[in-house]
Amino acid sequence: MGPTRKLRVLAAMSGGVDSAVAAARIAEAGHDVTGVHLALSSNPQSYRTGARGCCTLEDARDARRAADVIGIPFYVWDMAERFHRDVVEDFVSEYAAGRTPNPCLRCNEKIKFEAVLDRALALGFDAVATGHHARLEDGVLRRSVDEAKDQSYVLGVLTRAQLAHAIFPLGGSTKAQVREEAARRGLTVADKPDSHDICFIADGDTRAFLADRLGASEGPIVDALTGRVVGSHQGAYGFTVGQRKGLHIDRPAADGRPRYVLSIEPVSNTVTVGPRTSLEVRSIVSERPVWNGPLTEPYEPITCTVQLRAHGEVYGCRAQVSGGELHIELDRPATGVAAGQGAVLYDGDVVIGSATIASAV
């Protein structure tokens, strides 16, 4: 039996197994599907290869082969300039400002569900389909049934209007089931490995990538407990809150325990370190909130849960909007909470909304 209404769907095909199976499922359901690969680099050789990436010549070829097997038209859209401005430059400037951005979250917001969706709707498509592991039911975003692969966190920035034109066909399947289905359908990407690295940093060395763009800038590493300088660095942007390795501290702590990055001050170029207990926070202030779930903006405290990083722990909390900011009080302390990361609120497995972490104490 065919779909209740035949939709014109633009399937974003990264060249990986997830987006290929997502496109195949939508086509099999009887919709009018067109595959599109987003060319995100003006120099594809500089981006990661052999991954789920979205950016290499290898990925473009894999996406085209998958579209041929599925039997759908296929195009490549050049989004390199927009991607560089909205994702890569944002990534660099956020680090320069002492924050720790999530480029995948920004890519979903600015590229896949702003630039691409806007163009798709202008061309007469009804929706954009992607291979994200998340469920979308009656416009409500929920976690995937495969908790280990759930990507609702990086979709938490999407607005209700964007979700109204999105399709996530894989949310009811585990990753293992998706791979089995790809093999059954004859898609050559069935065994292609996933990537957990930043697609535009070819060798995975974030610090070297930032140093190349921001330059070396020597500054002190200061012990929060004693106020003493215990080392030096070549750029505060090379650190993130909660980091323990690669600090190059000259003097060990008095108690012999490891130190962690507690804060990054870009103006004075100072990195402050201290014990793990000093990382613990209970109160978080976040900016630019987005309310995309079944609730309206909570001006009175609501009880819910929050996820503070991709594949991170979930914390019980109370949350409310005040002065245009989202204030979150955690039930138990969290560590490694970094400004620039997303805070995504959930009611069970339903996404309520999200905001960008500004500060935490």
From TrEMBL:
What Pfam families has UniProt attached to this entry?
A: tRNA_Me_trans, tRNA_Me_trans_C, tRNA_Me_trans_M
Task: Identify the residues that the record assigns to the tRNA-specific 2-thiouridylase MnmA-like central domain, covering every copy.
Answer: 208-274
Biological process (GO) annotations held by this record are: tRNA wobble position uridine thiolation
The text of the family note is: Belongs to the MnmA/TRMU family.
User: What positions are marked as the site Interaction with tRNA?
Assistant: 132, 341
**Active-site residues, record numbering mapped to chain:** 107 (nucleophile), 199 (cysteine persulfide intermediate)
GO molecular function per UniProt:
ATP binding; tRNA binding; tRNA-uridine 2-sulfurtransferase activity
Any idea where the tRNA-specific 2-thiouridylase MnmA-like C-terminal domain is? Answer: 283-357
Q: Which domain of life is it from?
A: Bacteria
| Residue positions binding ATP | 12-19, 38, 131
The reply on keyword Cell membrane is: no
EC number(s) given by UniProt:
2.8.1.13
The UniProt catalytic activity note for this protein reads: S-sulfanyl-L-cysteinyl-[protein] + uridine(34) in tRNA + AH2 + ATP = 2-thiouridine(34) in tRNA + L-cysteinyl-[protein] + A + AMP + diphosphate + H(+)
Which HAMAP family is this protein grouped with? tRNA_thiouridyl_MnmA
SUPFAM superfamilies, alphabetized: Adenine nucleotide alpha hydrolases-like
Question: What name goes with this protein?
Answer: tRNA-specific 2-thiouridylase MnmA
Q: Where in the cell is it found?
A: Cytoplasm
The annotated region (Interaction with tRNA) lies at: 149-151
- Single GO cellular component term: cytoplasm
